[in-house]
Amino acid sequence: MDVIYGLIPGMLFLGLATVAVLFWAARTGQFEDLDGDGRRILMDEDEIDPPAPPAAGADPAKLEKSHADL
């Protein structure tokens, strides 16, 4: 019976800490984009970040060589 005197305050503390963490997570935007990571996995990299156009005056032979290295 003496164990209950320690368990009840302990469970109240853990419960309040859990509620505080959930409120903190909701306030900081942790639950804003739940589907974004799942969709990002299915996308091609080309759709996410298209390559930048070559700079003016760039040598086309060097560009082809750099793409062949990939």
Automatic annotation (TrEMBL):
InterPro entries: Cyt_oxidase_maturation_cbb3. Residues 61-70 have a biased composition (Basic and acidic residues). It comes from the Bacteria. This is Cbb3-type cytochrome oxidase maturation protein. Pfam families: FixS. PANTHER family: FIXS PROTEIN (PTHR41532:SF1). Keywords: Membrane, Transmembrane, Transmembrane helix. Signal peptide: none annotated. The chain crosses the membrane at residues 6-26. Residues 43-70 are annotated as: Disordered.
